[in-house]
C-alpha cells in the first residue's frame, strides 16, 4: 500500500503562513514563520490528502508538494 | 532625479506602450486596463517618469520577483526612495554632513539586496510573527470600537477617513512605542511620501525628512530609556555579534511606517467599500464567522493595493522585451492576482475561493514582513465593523475617491446606515 506525504521545500518557503492558517494540524511554523509538516507529513486519509492539496494550491511560493511512496 | 510627469491632459491612448499609473481612469478602475495589457503584451512599457516596464501576468511576476540578480530592490519606487543628500540647506556643518552620509542606508530590508537583505529581514520576522502580532489584537479591537463609537449615532461616516485610515497608524505606533496621539501627524507624512509625493518630489523629500528626523529622535529616546517596544528590540538585537547599527534601525523604522500605514488602510478601505455594495457577502460573514480568514485572503487578492518597483541591474531581455540597465520594472502584483490563467473567474469576489495563491504581499525574498500584522488588522476591522454596522451602503458610489499609483485604495468614502 502506498502512503502519501506532504513536504515543504525549505529553500522556497518564505513564511507566508497560508498553509498554517489553513491546516494548523498539518503544518507548524517556527519563530520566523517558516513552515514544516508536523511529524513525518504522512497523510492518513482522504480528508488529510484534500487538506494538503488545498495547502499546495494556496502557497504562493509553490513550496509545498505531495509525494507517494 | 527625473520626474518628467507629462501634463495631465496628455491622456493615455495606448496602455501597452504608454501606460500612466497616475491617470485618473487607471486609479479609479484599473481592472479592464490590466486585462487588456495582460492578454496582448507580457511586458507593457512607458516613457513617463523616466521610463519603466510593467508585467501583469502571474507567472511573469513570479519569475521576475525570484530573479534578484537581474532585478534589484535598490529602488522600489518609480522615483528614488531616499531623499538625496540635502544640498538646498545652507552649508550643512561637517557634523550634519556626516549624519546625512550615515543615514543614507535606504529603507532596509525593502530596498536591500542580499547579503544585507538577509539579516535585515531576519530581524523583523520574529516581532512580526503570528504569535507576536496576536498581542496587539485586543487593542486593535478596542480601537475599532472607539472609532465606531464616534460615528455610529450620525447614521453616516466616511469609511476611509473616519475608520480605515485611523487603524494602521495607531497599531504601528503602539508597536514602536510612540504616543498614539501623534499618529495623525505621521499619517500625513506617509501620504506625503508615498502617495502625493510620487508626483511631487519636493513634498516627498520633505515628508521623508520629517519621518527620518522623527525616527532619529525616537531612537535616541529609546537608547536612554529602553522599553517593551519594537525600537528597543531592534536596538538590542545583534548581527554577527555586533549591535545593529543605529542608522539601520532608523531606516527600518522609517520603512515600517511607510510600508505599514498606506498599504493596510488601503486594504481595509477596499474591504469596507466592497462589503458596502454586497449585502449578500455581509450576511455570509455575519452568519458564518469562520469564513473571515478566507474572505480576507480573497479581498487581498481582488483589491491588492501594492505595486512595488525593481531596478534592472544589468542589460537583459524578458520574453523578447529588451531592458537596459537602470530601467525600472513595476511589479504589478495586483494585476497578477486577476490573471485568469491562475484564478478562476478572477473578476468575481468569491469568499469561498479554494485556490488562491495570491501575491498581494509579493513573492520571494521580499514577501511582506508585515503580512501577519496586516491580516490581523484587516480581520479585526472587518469583524468589528460588521458587528456594529451590519447594514450600510455607499452614500454616493460615484463620489468615492481613490488614491493610486503604487498603493491603491479609497481615500474618501461616505457610507450611510440606520442610526
Ligand atoms: C495589506 C497590507 C499590506 C500589503 C498589501 C503589503 C504589501 C507588501 C508587498 C507587495 C511587499 C513586497 C515588496 C517588494 O517585493 O518589493 C511588502 C514588503 C514589506 N512590507 Fe508590506 N504590505 C502590507 C502591510 C504591511 C505592514 C502592516 C507592515 C509592517 C508594519 C509591512 C512591512 C513590510 C516590510 C518590512 C516589507 C519588506 C520586506 C522585505 O523586503 O524583505 N507591510 N509589503
Ligand atoms: S504557505 Fe508556502 S511559503 Fe507560506 S509558510 Fe506555507 S509553505 Fe511556506
Describe, in plain words, how this protein is organized in 3D.
- The complex is a heterodimer of chains A (69) and B (419).
- Chain A is an alpha+beta fold and 69 residues long.
- Chain A has one domain: Alpha-Beta Plaits (2-Layer Sandwich), CATH 3.30.70.20.
- Helix content of chain A is 26%, strand content 26%.
- A three-stranded antiparallel β-sheet of chain A has the order 4-1-5.
- In chain A, strand 2 and strand 3 form a beta hairpin.
- The mean pLDDT of chain A is 93.
- Chain B is of the alpha+beta class.
- Chain B has one domain: Cytochrome p450 (Orthogonal Bundle).
- Chain B has 17 helices and 14 strands.
- In chain B, strands 1-2-10-7-3 form a five-stranded mixed β-sheet. A three-stranded antiparallel β-sheet of chain B has the order 4-14-11.
- In chain B, strand 8 and strand 9 form a beta hairpin.
- The radius of gyration of chain B is 21 Å and the shape is globular.
- The termini of chain B are far apart.
- The N terminus of chain B is likely disordered.
- The interface between A and B is medium-sized, with 18 and 20 residues.
- The complex binds protoporphyrin IX containing FE and iron/sulfur cluster.
Enumerate the spans of chain B where pLDDT stays under 50 for 5 or more consecutive residues. Answer: 1-9, 80-93, 95-102
Number of domain units of chain B: 1
How far is it from the N-terminal to the C-terminal residue of chain B, by CA? 51 Å
Strand order of the largest sheet of chain A: 4-1-5
Basic shape of chain A: globular
Which structural class fits the helix and strand makeup of chain A?
alpha+beta
CATH class of chain A: Alpha Beta
Bound molecules: protoporphyrin IX containing FE, iron/sulfur cluster
Overall pLDDT confidence of chain B: 88
Report the uncertain regions of chain A.
none
Order of helices and strands of chain A: EHEEEHE
**N- to C-terminal separation of chain A?**
9 Å
Query: Biggest sheet of chain A, in brief?
Result: 3 strands, antiparallel
Q: Tell me the number of strands of chain B.
A: 14
Amino acid at each position: 500500500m502506498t502512503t502519501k506525504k506532504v513536504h515543504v521545500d525549505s529553500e522556497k518557503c518564505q513564511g507566508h503562513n497560508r498553509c498554517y492558517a489553513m491546516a494548523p494540524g498539518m503544518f507548524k511554523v517556527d519563530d520566523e514563520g517558516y513552515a514544516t509538516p508536523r511529524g513525518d507529513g504522512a497523510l492518513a486519509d482522504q480528508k488529510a490528502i484534500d487538506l494538503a492539496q488545498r495547502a499546495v494550491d494556496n502557497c504562493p511560493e509553490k513550496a509545498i508538494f505531495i509525494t507517494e511512496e | 532625479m527625473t520626474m518628467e510627469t507629462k501634463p495631465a491632459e496628455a491622456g493615455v491612448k495606448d496602455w501597452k506602450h504608454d501606460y500612466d499609473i497616475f491617470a485618473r481612469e487607471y486609479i479609479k478602475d484599473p481592472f479592464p486596463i490590466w486585462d487588456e495589457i495582460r492578454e496582448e503584451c507580457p511586458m507593457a512599457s512607458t516613457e513617463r517618469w523616466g521610463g519603466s516596464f510593467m508585467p501583469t501576468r502571474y507567472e511573469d511576476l513570479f519569475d521576475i520577483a525570484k530573479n534578484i540578480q537581474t532585478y534589484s530592490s535598490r529602488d522600489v519606487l518609480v522615483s528614488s526612495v531616499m531623499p538625496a543628500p540635502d544640498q538646498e540647506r545652507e552649508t550643512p556643518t561637517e557634523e550634519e554632513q556626516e549624519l546625512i552620509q550615515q543615514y543614507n542606508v535606504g529603507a532596509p530590508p525593502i530596498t536591500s539586496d542580499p547579503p544585507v537583505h538577509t539579516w535585515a529581514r531576519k530581524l523583523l520576522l520574529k516581532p512580526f510573527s503570528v504569535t507576536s502580532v496576536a498581542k496587539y489584537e485586543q487593542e486593535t479591537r478596542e480601537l475599532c470600537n472607539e472609532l465606531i463609537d464616534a460615528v455610529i449615532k450620525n447614521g453616516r461616516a466616511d469609511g476611509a477617513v473616519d475608520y480605515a485610515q485611523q487603524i494602521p497608524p495607531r497599531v504601528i505606533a503602539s508597536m514602536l512605542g510612540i504616543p498614539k496621539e501623534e499618529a495623525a501627524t505621521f499619517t500625513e507624512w506617509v501620504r506625503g511620501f508615498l502617495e502625493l509625493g510620487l508626483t511631487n518630489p519636493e513634498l516627498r523629500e520633505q515628508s521623508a525628512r520629517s519621518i527620518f528626523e522623527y525616527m532619529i529622535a525616537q531612537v535616541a529616546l529609546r537608547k536612554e530609556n529602553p522599553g517593551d517596544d519594537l525600537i528597543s528590540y531592534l536596538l538590542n538585537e545583534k548581527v554577527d555579534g555586533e549591535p545593529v547599527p543605529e542608522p539601520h534601525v532608523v531606516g527600518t523604522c522609517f520603512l515600517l511606517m511607510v510600508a505599514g500605514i498606506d498599504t493596510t488602510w488601503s486594504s481595509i478601505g477596499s474591504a469596507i467599500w466592497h462589503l458596502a455594495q454586497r449585502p449578500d457577502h455581509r450576511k455570509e460573514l455575519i452568519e458564518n464567522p469562520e469564513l473571515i480568514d478566507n474572505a480576507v485572503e480573497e479581498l487581498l487578492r481582488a483589491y491588492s493595493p501594492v505595486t512595488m518597483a525593481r531596478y534592472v541591474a544589468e542589460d537583459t531581455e524578458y520574453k523578447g522585451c529588451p531592458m537596459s540597465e537602470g530601467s525600472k520594472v513595476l511589479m504589478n502584483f495586483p494585476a497578477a492576482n486577476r490573471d485568469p490563467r491562475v484564478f478562476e473567474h478572477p473578476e468575481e469576489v468569491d469568499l469561498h475561493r479554494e485556490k488562491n495563491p495570491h501575491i498581494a504581499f509579493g513573492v520571494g525574498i521580499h514577501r511582506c514582513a508585515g503580512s501577519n500584522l496586516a491580516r490581523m488588522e484587516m480581520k479585526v476591522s472587518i469583524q468589528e465593523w460588521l458587528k456594529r454596522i451590519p447594514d450600510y451602503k455607499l452614500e454616493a458610489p460615484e463620489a468615492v475617491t481613490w488614491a493610486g499609483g503604487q498603493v491603491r485604495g479609497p481615500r474618501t468614502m461616505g457610507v450611510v446606515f440606520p442610526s
